[in-house]
TrEMBL record:
Keywords: Signal. This is TIGR02301 family protein. Residues 1-25 form the signal peptide. InterPro entries: CHP02301. It comes from the Bacteria. Pfam families: DUF2385.
Length: 125
């Protein structure tokens, strides 16, 4: 069972642990996972609001990830672009909340939890 209340905690933990790594001129090994997490957050922001959630929880989680990661302006733009890509990919195809939409939410919640947990476990120390 997916626990939506736990995902924000995983996200903050994963971002904080990733930010604790030393700065590098090249992409950190966890960066592509954080990029994918950004895309998942954008998807959830669109889909959850489409299905009745009000507010900006997923956008706020993205802002927390950016604050923790403190990327260069170029990398920040890449993170934001991935968030927007996730949002727009569903906005183009889902205009009402359907069973398919709810199934996509479940899949993305699971993926977000897994990404957050994996980042924390693999790169946390």
């Amino acid at each position: 069972m997916i626990r939506p209340r736990l995902l924000p905690s995983f996200l903050v933990l994963a971002a904080a642990l990733a930010a604790a790594q030393p700065a590098r001129a090249v992409d950190a090994p966890y960066e592509e996972r954080l990029m994918r997490l950004s895309e998942v957050l954008g998807s959830l922001h669109y889909l959850r609001n489409l299905c009745g959630e009000t507010g900006n929880l997923w956008r706020e989680q993205m802002e927390a990830l950016l604050a923790s990661e403190n990327p260069t302006p170029d990398k920040r733009a890449r993170f934001v672009a991935r968030f927007n890509r996730g949002y727009r990919s569903f906005a183009a195809t889902h205009v009402t909340c359907t069973e398919s939409t709810r199934e996509a939410i479940k899949r993305y919640m699971k993926e977000g939890e897994e990404l957050s947990r994996d980042i924390a476990v693999m790169f946390g120390n």
